[in-house]
Amino acid sequence: MRTHDGGGGAEDDTGVIREWPRRSIPPRRGVVHRIIQPTPVPKRPQNEAPALVTPETPSLVTTTEGELSDLELLVRGDPEAIKRLIAEARASHHQNPFGLNEPQVRAVELLCGNQRHTLLVGGSRSAKTTLICRHILMRAIKGQRMGAGGRHAILRHRFNAVKSSVWRQTFPKMLRLFFRGPDGRCAVKMRPNWQDGFVRVWAAQKEEPAEIWFGGLDDQERVEKILGNEYATIFFNECSQIARSSAMVALTRLAEVLRGKDPVTGQPVELVQKALYDLNPVGKGHWTYQLFFDKVDPDTRRPLIDPNNYQTMFLNPLDNAENLTEEYLKELMGYPEKMRRRFFSGEYVAELSNALWAFALLEQLRVDLDEKPSSKRVCIAIDPSGCEGQEDKRSDEIGLVAAERAMDDHAYVLDDQSGWYSPEEWAQKALLMRDRWQADIIVAERNFGGDMVAAVIRTKDRNAKVKLVTASRGKHVRAEPVAALYDQKRVHHCGRFDALEEQMTNFTTAGYEGPKSPDRADALVWALTELMLGGQGDTGWATPKGTY
Q1: Bridge pairing between strands 2-3 and 268-271
Q2: H/E stretch holding 462
Q3: Angle between helices 452-460 and 423-437 (to 10 degrees)
Q4: Segment (H or E) for 400
Q5: How far apart are CA 69 and CA 33, in angstroms?
Q6: pLDDT digits (tens, 9 = 90+) for 357-377
Q7: pTM of the full predicted structure?
Q8: Are 262 and 143 in contact (CB under 8 A)?
Q9: Which of 16, 223, 232, 342 has the fewest CB atoms within 10 Å of its CB?
Q10: d(CA 89, CA 86)
Q11: Structural domains in the chain, sorted by start
């Protein structure tokens, strides 16, 4: 018998998950507006090929002709639609004795399948990582109780990220939720080795402990140490940031064979090898979309030899609504279209064929603020408009972006404070950003308002160093040299700037194809041109009155 243990136990030869006493889950209450969920994986004999999971993304729909869907109502800001959607999601989730609701049970069942590759993809805070970490710990416990021990790896693009996010946050939370004994204590013993980056796991004292390794693929020395071992499980966390080539190298170590005796029946068993993936969806050009949905090799574009070995499921924040605040869900629902589709609906987005920036590249270049080198020069950039204040939503926003050039001669985007401000407000905001980031200069576009920009800033601080620049060419022409810096991997975003990044991905070689004006992206272009391209060259810059 080959075990397919995951969050709730093991799948035996009849396809039934044993060691998992859960009550039946009643169907969702009948509503017109609802979330369409992917089809659960049917039970099957061991020698039968795994059934394909419908790659249909969760979407908000209406079943009555001519009636507005909930998504359309959300776009229009209908507060009743928002409240109804959250209430319906919470009411339709019936938890089993292990604290999992209906969508999470289906995700666990998929993880228990006999496919080698499994992807959980979905919106922000949809419990993807928690469910996979739970599955990995169950596999570690199973291997240890089999007497086989075994190693399992959780990998991310950067070690600091996996250490702070998964090791220090997700794992302790997951242990508290799912692995408490009758006395309220954790039923699993774990001993961390902080120096080498792994924990030993015991559930049976007499058997060889299992090991769960945590690693980043950004440090060559650490990669060599991690990939010096073989593993029974490899989990690529936030794999939108992981290059396909790095994942392929790591998968060469998914080779550990764990054989032992079933702790219940005493029969010989083997723990199957598994590669697990999760991510917030990016563009459809990403290698995970090609593998799991197009079912082709991302490098050759040839059909996969074993397409049924790649299974996936979509989750979104409403699938985890009982663990999130209503305010958080409302904020996600109010995002612009592309952001809402990625972080709320949990969908891959179609990217423009001639876009200057791609979501996947931005994810790969993202870093934490404490990871960047020390600063060499900092710039605050302003893209002004005719906005008169917070209530003037008909006008374009004021672009306000902070960026720096570090000692490694790479650029780092630090902050985006763009919004609807009056001239006094954005001048004050720019000076606050200058003080916070200890900026050397403020760069502002002169085209709108002429010398007014510098004059407004100098009413707040007469000694402020302001450089006025004139745009003499189209926006996309100015943006192309900056986009080339990203292609060279010389620009990094310190954190997530969703509204800014959505504007960036709407820039094409033919022009800007997004709604309204790309004020945030314009400010980014001004800042990076000043820092990385000398503030001149083939960008249409001019400073007729010099630097103030």
Answers
A1: parallel
A2: none
A3: 60
A4: strand 399-406
A5: 7
A6: 988 889 889 998 988 999 999
A7: 0.68
A8: no
A9: 16
A10: 5
A11: 1-113+317-348 (no CATH), 125-279 (3.40.50.300), 359-532 (3.30.420.240)
